UniProtKB/TrEMBL annotation:
Name of this protein: NADPH:quinone reductase
Matches recorded under SMART domains: PKS_ER
InterPro entries to which the protein is assigned, alphabetical: ADH-like_N, ER, GroES-like_sf, NAD(P)-bd_dom_sf
Domain Enoyl reductase (ER): 10-285
UniProt KW keywords: NADP, Oxidoreductase
Amino acid sequence: MRAVEVSALGGPEVLRVVERPDPVPGEGQLLVRVRAATVNPADLAARTGQIPGGPVPPPFLIGWDVAGEVVGGDAGIPLGTDVVGLIPWHLSRGAIGAYAELVAVDAGWVVPLPDGLDPVAAATVPLNGLTAHRALDLLDVKTPTTVLVTGASGGVGGFAAQLALRRGHTVLACATHDDEEWVRGLGVHSVIPRGAGLDRAVPAVLDAVPLGGIKGDVVVATRPLPDQDHKLVLVEPDREALSGLVAALADGTLRTRVSETFPLEAAAEAHRRLESGGVRGKLVLTL
């Protein structure tokens, strides 16, 4: 099979399309022919070695989000089923990656794709959607309250704002400059330009950028915040939550956006595009 390999730690040029043996699914695993794999900032961090626990020695594979068709394995999902799921890359540390024609995944990592749902759109959900879901759980608020979401223009923040609304919260959302219209269209109660100061504390903060320094009775962040009391969200596979997320995407009650697609062999170009900034929506590799 063809796969994108990180040949050395460094810039996008270290990404190489290589031939690797087809993976063989083990007990409880499925073989998935990949149709779409999202390019995330976490992939850029892995490529440069800026990840918790220290860099992974090259060569290794990358990619968390996968959508495709089951073509092998015997783990309760029939052959030919379209699936979407999360590869817990922080655990596999490069042994498995979504930037490949085939992946062997644990059956608990994937869920069937709802009929008619575009695999490219579906592939944007697992990492960002499950992170947002888990972050809201960590806020641990028992009744609806006011939630401030930073980075609501992005993947985690955009999903978090929508999921907070579904839980009955009043949502204040920070938006990137010139992206306020998209964030307002998510249904949030108030849009705050990024960089604008907040003159009061709010009951709950989901710092998805993260900016740091925002006052809240409880603060959940996607990365460590020096010198601030907060909870750190760590994503993990969750079939029940993922099923709900992709079902909501399929019925139109959850929104995502894809900025651009790239073929597998243009993975380096996709990394350059993401690093250049100003991307509105997700970048997705298609096979």
